[in-house]
Each structure stands twice: as C-alpha cells, then as structure tokens.
Amino acid sequence: MTVTKNEVAGLVAIAIAAFPQYQERDMKLTVQAWHQLLADIPFEVAKAALIKLLTTNKYFPTVAELREAALRCTTSLPTPEEAWEEVRGKLTGDTYIKLKYKHEKPTFSRPEIEQAVNQLGLEDLLNSENLSYDRTQFLRFYETIRNRAIADKQDQHLAELTGAQKLLTGN
C-alpha cells in the first residue's frame, strides 16, 4: 500500500506546523515532490519517519531524510548496541566453552553481526582481555556494515520506485 497524494498533503501540513516560517509559503510543489518520491512508502511508516525527524531535526525534512528515517523504522537490523549484546552473550558461559575448546562456530541472528565478528576475529574475541576495546571496535565495524546494508536496501527501494533496477545492477 502506497501513500496517497492526500496523505502526503497531510504529512506536509504536519511538517509546516512544526516550522512556522513555512506557513505562508505555497507548498504544492513540495506535496507533488514528496508524493512522487515517497510513493513506495506506506503512510504509517512515512508518518512515523516524519514525526521522528520533526522531533530531532532543526530544519525542514528533506525527501532523503524522510526515506532514510522510514527505512530505519522498518529495518530488522539490530542497533549496534543490541548486536554487541548478542555477541557478548555468545562469548560467555557454556557457549564460550563450546566455541573456545570444541571449536564450534557461533550462529548469529543476522549475517551483518557475523560479518562484524569475522572482521574482529572470533579467536581474538574469545582470547581478549580488553572487553571495552572489543566493544568499541565491534560497534564501529557493525555500524559501517549496518549502514551499508540500509543504504543497499534504500537503493533497492529507489530502483523499484523509478524502474531503474538495470542502472543499479549494471545489467
């Protein structure tokens, strides 16, 4: 289900209400642009993204910011902190013994988490005595991987919206 022009007009009205300096402007072109460029986003997701942006940004939201916020609202990727908690849970107790001494490979809820662990090195994590450093490095690696996955998903949505799949894949 895509967002309708009337729903987009409502979203623009909410944004205008949050930015009084826009209240005297003709926002018809903004409604048209948002409708075309947010067409693939369900209304409730777009509204949640707009509200998130209006409560955190100091400037009128751009289409790019709305699309990114909408994607973040719908992504199933854990936050870096959640991912680290999952990794930390695998590196303690019985799981730790299985990994360290039986050389079993851990399984994670998302391939992005596994990729970050592999970049750090599972053996290094198992033998590390500096949890703070490991956490910092993991968060940095995972954030990069997560952002790339989100950007790839955003590119895929844009390609579907514009019919430009061939341009993005090179086929």
Which properties best describe this structure?
single chain, 171 residues, mainly alpha, 10 helices, elongated
Output the helix-strand order.
HHHHHHHHHH
Helix segment count? 10
Shape: elongated
Largest sheet: none
Radius of gyration: 21 Å
Which percent range fits the helix content? over 70%
Average of the residue pLDDT scores: 85
**Weakly predicted, low-confidence segments:** 164-168
Tell me how many strands there are.
0
Q: Look at the helices and sheets and give the structural class.
A: mainly alpha
Q: What fraction of the residues are assigned to beta strands by DSSP?
A: under 5%
For the record, give the distance between the C-alpha atoms at the N and C termini, rounded to a whole number.
28 Å
Characterise the protein shown here.
This protein is elongated. 72% of the residues lie in helices and 0% in strands. It is mostly helical and 171 residues long. The chain starts with a helix and ends with a helix.
